[in-house]
């Protein structure tokens, strides 16, 4: 009996934030994918049950990654700042959500929905590899089309675009738009202090 | 009026805020009233000599057109309702409000993911590994451009949380 769990853990450790796909691991370990999934689940259970272990196997963007458990976030935030653990500005998030749900889409179309120019946010999202160019739109001017990347899936902690919040489940709550609740003001002041 | 322009992500966001105070469906708001508030608000800001983004001005002119059309008596019903500029504006407002909400949801979804940390991939080197020559000058250029773009973003925000 090979120590599969240890071997999987070694592979995931070296792969780090890049992670490994099921197929890559299956080839390396010479295991059929179904058996590998069983081993991965066993490894997840092992990590979960050992409270003295900080690690967890994450499955996002259809790749497996070794990452720390949620509970250590506050401790690690003081130490590490990698792009995936940073939050985006409101403007960038708005642009990202429009591209995520309406891809492929041009910058002008995004501008129209937001009512403001989105060039800045788009170049930022491109630099962070959350979106990419997806060819040209065949209209006058042939503008770039944009879509989300594989990294976007990991950034959101999902495997497929279908796992995003369903547009039809959302009813626009009037109070969610009110910027001037006392609570929210408190939140915003905290943000300014940071 | 204790609000600053940088609390808003553009004119639609400001309009949405004004509309939301009525607590009715977007299509039922007293549009002329909202337009007057919007223009009054912009005027206050101008009198304080604040820089106002061009987008807000463009919206102001669109709103003035809608308001003047609403005030003038109609001679004949020339266009169906669906094509009127006010209907278009309300549609835009509704779509924007949906995405505003969605982006908040997505932010929360990402916050969950952001609680897990990983380390960078370890580059393993062996004597017997062979170089696959599949990279060109273009790849090198793009790789460096990407690093520079990222660094610039990071410096802009001084390594703090990315808050625009």
Automatic annotation (TrEMBL), chain A:
NCBIfam families: SMC-Scp complex subunit ScpB (TIGR00281). The lineage of its organism: Bacteria, Bacillati, Bacillota, Bacilli, Lactobacillales. Keywords: Cell cycle, Cell division, Chromosome partition, Cytoplasm. One of its GO terms (cellular component) is cytoplasm. It is found in: Cytoplasm. This is Segregation and condensation protein B. It holds the Pfam family SMC_ScpB. Participates in chromosomal partition during cell division. May act via the formation of a condensin-like complex containing Smc and ScpA that pull DNA away from mid-cell into both cell halves. Belongs to the ScpB family. Its main location: cytoplasm.
